[in-house]
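#structure-requests
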Amino acid sequence: MHAPLRRIAAAAAFAAAGLLAACSTTTPTRPAAWAAPEVLVKPSAFAGVHGLAVDKQGRLLAGSVAGANMWEVNRQTGEARVFIEPPQGMSDDIAISAKGEMAWTGFNLGQLFYRAHDKAPIQVLAKDLPGINSLDFDKKTGQLYASQVFAGDALWEIDRAGKKPQRLIKKDMGGFNGFEVGPDGMLYGPLWFKNKVVRINPANGDMTTIADGFAIPAAANLDGKGNLWVLDTRRGELVKVELATGRKTVATQLKTGLDNLAIAPDDGTIYISNMADNSVQAFNPATGALRTLTSGAVALPTGLKADGDRLWVADVFAFREVDLKTGQVSDIFRAWGEGELEYPLAVGMSKTRFALASFATNSVQVVDRATRKTQVMAHGFKVPLDAIPLDDGSVLVLELGTGSIVRASGDKLAERKTIASGIKLPVQMVLGRDGQVYVTDLGGSLLRVPAAGGTPVAVAQGLNQPEGLAETPWGTFIVAEVGAKRLTEVNLADGSRRTVADKLPIGVPPLPGGTPANAPTGVTVGGDGSVYFSSDVNNGIYRIRPAK
């Protein structure tokens, strides 16, 4: 750490010589103890919020894929509580029938869930549908329709009894996302990848364009007054489209990262979800008033890196920086906004670049620290969970899919060489001050690998599901043992360990469709010796200062 410049008074005998003040640099020493964790960024509900629905009881329900749960949000106070727990609560979209039945899509599971009423058992009506995304009931006939997006591109009719196989209506539409069944029995919704909203006849798959010219239309709902309300996630707009003419009007400007909407049948309020900040907002179409029911400064923080008075956060639905003096959070990229971003779970850092790793799209994104512009977006990695940009332009990539560390270099990081293999459950890695790479293995080990390549060697064993990892200024390592819900300091010099903090809000159990580490707990250490960690339980970020 660079200590503040201090002017040292010169002795009188040397004053005439004009001796200048000296500048000193100090490194914090290992503290005797740690203070209690303090909140740096406040927790929030959800873990990315997606589908919305207002049910027959007037409850506002909100879905989360990464959190694998469904929430109820109080329409007056914004208070949120878990309505259906993981894993069956995983919900990318939610639909309510005229009878009050509820169905929802488990995106990562490829399953469609159904419940006749609150006390009825949960059923799986369809499975083996990767990317099952949006759905809705025909309010007149009770027919149920669902679409695949991102991991598939198809529209299906689903048997509500769960006995008949789903009927294919149409394929390769362009991402029929966030749709609704109209009173005429037609399906109205956006084509995510084709920048328009369409009407589809479920009987024969005939498709008609209603309006185009959107950036990325994410969802659409009918208001019963001849209008289709559309979310443009890239522009952050709520747009009213007149069905008769296709005329578009921007009703209100929002932030990017919008996901879904629901129109309350009782009062016409339009509820809007934003996955990038865990927000649910209420818009009054009659007055134009916009009210935020609930939100978060971050969505689902995982990887962390501290440098100076800044903390850099891989936030799954965003890439962000935090001012460590004030706790203020700023966006660098938001999901589906301007600039590329593909659900990062980890951030690596050099003096000039960031590297973001995403297992959701098997990608590594390299970002220039000075310009905040993406230099490279490279795909084709095998479940990458971490990445470190090196000074020579290459990037080290930690692959869960192969249990190895890969050095990627050249144009678009297309040249890839395995430098270490045989790591059973790799989660996070750091480049040590000694020039070697240190890796956590969820099975219980801290491994060391020469940066030039070689066989991984266990330098610490018996750890309880280690995930996040950081080196301290004094040369020890801080490990997030999520199985024990604690942070542990490991001294490789003498083999000693001590608890930095325990009983922490970390360690959500693995969820179906995810990785063994789910949303890895991030750890980093600042120049003053303060430890920072992210919570996969409540989406907060915490600081632990050395005790004074």
